[in-house]
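Mods, move this if it's the wrong board.
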Amino acid sequence: MNSGLAGKRRFVLILGCLTGLAAISIDMSLPAIPEMVRELATSLSLGQQIVTWFMAGLALGQLPAGLVSDRIGRMPVLYAGVLTFIAGGAICAFTGSIEQMLAGRFLQGIGASAGAVIARAIVRDVASGKEAARLLTIMVMIFTAAPMLAPMAGSLLVTVSGWRAPFIVIAVCGGLMLIGVNRGLRETRLPVRDHHILRQLWISLREFSRHRQCLFGVLLVLLTASGFLSLITSSSALIIEIYGYPVSQFGFIFALAGFAILLGSTINRRLLLTYSSMHVMGVGAVLIGVAALQMLLIVWLDAAPFWWLWGNVCLYMLGTGLLLPNATAMALDPVPAFAGVAASIIGTVQNLAAALSSLVSSLLYDGSIRNVVINMGICGTAVFVSFLLRAQILGSKPLFAEEGAD
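Not the wrong board. Structure tokens:
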């Protein structure tokens, strides 16, 4: 069933786009926040929660999606998720209140969760080890086009057609994704109903938690994502409100961070040809740690020239491109029989933490630089410290540390 799929370009492209659907939904909407807040007569703090509620839906939808996909197959769950995403997008595009907007974003996040978890599960269905890490890296390279292009597109749409335009385009992207899934993917998982669904969930969670390698991978993914998503939440306020850049320039500035992930992912793919995944993750952890420590210095100073602050954001994202695909592959590798649930655990924990971090970031926002970057500084430092303590966390030498070049 799975033979040869990992080498097909259209197959990998669609998986990357499925993973990037969430990034498009977040990044394209960011330039619309200030104008949306004014028209819906709400506060900037509440308006920034369009990211928080989307992330909450993205987190809560993944475990059910992964569990059901292990039982009935990947494709039915994927179709249901994309259709839900389109419905949530329609609510956001034509809302008349901030409450309806947040409800639509939550529904949209639930829909996007299916694409995120099923894409990772399919990778584990067709590959393992360094091959899975390389495949995930290619997916990262594809979906990092979203942070590069989506904010620029969002800025242009807001400037030309108003704040609703990005949300309309996001819904249309969901429709295009539905066509892509129908034409480019096929089932990679045979239905398995050996146990009652709740017992299957319990067995899957127990098996996942038995492997320290899984837990260590999840920890790195969780901390890394929490750091950069907390800043993404406040990025429009930081760039437009605090530093005074016009909306038309927001997309180009934000694209620098997307380019940094793309560069990191490209370097990662090449390094995996020679070095183990653990060694490559170490490079990423160091880069994230260096950026995070400088963020904490900026917190202490409560002031920084924009080039210094955003340069460290880009350095953090460069390290993310090196660390995230390998940490995800590490967490998925020991549990091929429960790939759907394993992928959903990674996504659920990652996005719940990111939603909480995003919420804290929006609540802390008071117009100061300090409260915008503090979460990124703390989370990035925790990534570096966790990697330094990997021997204590893992307890024994993990599979990924023993890999040689392929």
